[in-house]
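Hello,

Our lab assistant flagged a job as stuck in the queue for most of the afternoon. It eventually completed. Since we weren't sure the result was trustworthy after the delay, we are filing this so someone can double-check. Below is the sequence as submitted and the structure that was eventually returned. Let us know if re-running is recommended.
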Amino acid sequence: MSFKDQIHIAMKEKGANIVLALDVTDTQPLSVLKRSLTILRDTQHSICAVKINLQTLILLGLEGVKKIIREAHNFGLPVIMDCKMNDVGNSNVKFAEVLFNVGFDALIANPFVGWKGALQPVFELSRREGKGVILLVYMSHPGADEGYGQIVLDPNCNEPTPQYRVFAEKALRWGADGAVVGATRPEKVGEVYEILRGQVPIYSPGVGVQGGSAIEALKAGASYLIIGRSIIMSDNPEKIVKRFKEEIGEFLKL
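-- returned structure --
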């Protein structure tokens, strides 16, 4: 089963399209692991996947992260590694092998490094292993326009165009399993959606603390919402994620 199928099935079973960014901040590995597992158990009925960042992987190590992955899988939730892969092909594919072997179902990669000798072997590995590759098309932070929004020459027509549009075209051409476009810029979500034509689902981070609106991102074409700090920094993560789920559910009924 492909990653796209896994997360779609989880979304249907859970009745939610929320990807939990389980990025617990602490300097003590044991505290991070315990807190992560507690939040996961409390929120698992209202999410369709889990995202773990590189800092958590470094702090907990492979064995620690494996415990989170195993718990998520027990709840029927796929797990995404947010490593923003951005190196040459040999390094990328070795890293991807480690991530897939430890249990991750998909990873996030940066298309800046290109295809040949960079991301091509990662895509090839992911297809063999039934895993997913999600491309960064436009990030959610304020400075994203300095890179993703810069004007470049479109390699297809040699005309000036924003970088994120080129990346969206690559997500479609390379057969990516998803494209990340920040919910903080719903107009960019809409533009990318028009390019992807529904063939590549859009993942939108930045909802909540960063100021992105879940409803505006969905209206623009997002399929999945990546939500982290609003949930994990709350005194009651279960209550907050249920509130998001209900808000989104009411909109999707329209």
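-- support follow-up --
The delay was a queue issue, not a problem with the job. The result is valid. Residues 10 and 48 are 5 Å apart (CA to CA). DSSP finds ten helices and ten strands in the chain.
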